[in-house]
Amino acid sequence: MSHRIKQFILLCLMLFSVLATTASAEGIKIKSFELEKVEGEWLLNASFQIELAPGLEDAVQKGVVLYFQTEFELTRGRWYWFDEKSVIAQRQIRLSYQPLTQQYRIASEGFTFSAPTIAEGLQAVGSVGGWRVIDNAQLDQGRSYQAALRMNLDLSKLPKPFQVNALNNRDWSVSSEWYRFPFAPTGPNLIKR
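RE: above sequence
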């Protein structure tokens, strides 16, 4: 094999590894979370890293509104039946583009924020702060629980033509894995990752 062919093959392999790394970087990953007990309630602060495929970014700029859903579950294991879901909390954040102001708008539960770039908009979408997820009255103080947290793009909120496209296109399936961790109501007042 000639030296030029070897260089070409090596270059192709390097390019393929860069493209594979770039493709796997898209999606949602949890960067940090904090569950803090404040006056009988547990508040969640979390940070997610969100990276969208170029097709999704383009869709937002053309007027498609994306809805991201953050889910928190608290389950208690039972030996005689399925696990009991003691707490289920969901929160939606909407990301849209305003062409007149050339700003990205983030809206959630009465809170609105504008960002000049999609990167800043996604950073705002991925920041969850002071979200009340557990009331101590919902807990049995003598038990231990399993907590779980994730964020995903809610495909059911997309316009119907995009829902059909999303079923056939992996770029539209944007979700983090469930992050699970043990939780005890009588444990420390601050749980971090």
